Amino acid sequence: MADAPAITLIEAITQALAYEMRADETVLVLGEDVGVNGGVFRATAGLQATFGAQRVLDTPLDETTIAGLTVGLASQGMKPVAEAQFDGFVYPMVDHIICHAARFRYRTRGRLTCPMVLRVPWGGGIRAPEHHSEANESIFTNVPGLRVVLPSSPARAYGLLLAAIRDPDPVIFMEPKRIYRQYKEVVPDDGEALPLDVCFVLRDGTDLTLVTWGAQVKECLEAADALAKDGISAEVIDVATLRPLDFATIAESVSKTGRCVIVHEAPKTAGFGAEIAARLAEESMFDLVAPVERVTGYDTHIPLFRLEMKYLPSVDKIVAAAKRAVAHA
């Protein structure tokens, strides 16, 4: 659609939800304040007025109940899209997600699936308290039976959320709230889903590979621009679906560039970047001409306010890591 408007990432979420609710009457939305108030970030603004209170459900302030209700609805033929109001609020949901949602297909030998989506406003950078600013994706990447998706732009948020809702298995859909309204893209409301389980190569390069996801995609693209001024060609990969990981795309890039810098805002220890680095050591060792670099958050809770942006990976930190990698002959 040539006349499609430019919209923000949060507006792309709303647009995808509305499209799928129009197309499929089994899709419903539930969570704290998602109905009358349209969600704390306004992701569900206007949906209750359009689709009614039986399809856009305001729930009690009880994440355990939200998760249990979502699993139950999914097991009985509905396609619920639940919202965890903030990333740090998912912990009471973990029992239902890990012990039940992720095991339905396995437990029933494929007779039942759990077609649910848990939307999680994710990550730091909005000057909020610590339970509102966590990058906890690695909790879910260790769980068989779950998909973990992290969009990085309005267009990818729209297409990946459509794919997540249509998927027969549970999807943890983590939305980088720092870029909810940071910039706009033209996103046609055409119902075209993007593929899950696929990395997106956003920029071609020959000297090193930058691997990232979520809000850090923007910093990596800016770092690639800065490196180009120094004659260093960086390929940028948006992982997008962390589990299952499209490692083949990363390996193909590293076979070309010989160097890899992994960037994420979660703490370094046991962050998902460690899994990618381990796979490179196991499967791409002879392609590497330099050690894998990681640019991450620190092994602390995210600091409040004044130090928050110091905690997050920056363009300068990414550029420095890339130059260390390139310095190896």
Automatic annotation (TrEMBL):
<dbReference type="GO" id="GO:0003863">
    <property type="term" value="F:branched-chain 2-oxo acid dehydrogenase activity"/>
</dbReference>
<dbReference type="InterPro" id="IPR009014">
    <property type="entry name" value="Transketo_C/PFOR_II"/>
</dbReference>
<dbReference type="InterPro" id="IPR029061">
    <property type="entry name" value="THDP-binding"/>
</dbReference>
<dbReference type="InterPro" id="IPR005475">
    <property type="entry name" value="Transketolase-like_Pyr-bd"/>
</dbReference>
<keyword id="KW-0786">Thiamine pyrophosphate</keyword>
<keyword id="KW-0560">Oxidoreductase</keyword>
<feature type="domain" description="Transketolase-like pyrimidine-binding">
    <location>
        <begin position="7"/>
        <end position="182"/>
    </location>
</feature>
<dbReference type="Pfam" id="PF02780">
    <property type="entry name" value="Transketolase_C"/>
</dbReference>
<dbReference type="GO" id="GO:0007584">
    <property type="term" value="P:response to nutrient"/>
</dbReference>
<dbReference type="Pfam" id="PF02779">
    <property type="entry name" value="Transket_pyr"/>
</dbReference>
<dbReference type="InterPro" id="IPR033248">
    <property type="entry name" value="Transketolase_C"/>
</dbReference>
<dbReference type="GO" id="GO:0009083">
    <property type="term" value="P:branched-chain amino acid catabolic process"/>
</dbReference>
<protein>
    <recommendedName>
        <fullName>2-oxoisovalerate dehydrogenase subunit beta</fullName>
        <ecNumber>1.2.4.4</ecNumber>
    </recommendedName>
</protein>
<comment type="function">
    <text>The branched-chain alpha-keto dehydrogenase complex catalyzes the overall conversion of alpha-keto acids to acyl-CoA and CO(2). It contains multiple copies of three enzymatic components: branched-chain alpha-keto acid decarboxylase (E1), lipoamide acyltransferase (E2) and lipoamide dehydrogenase (E3).</text>
</comment>
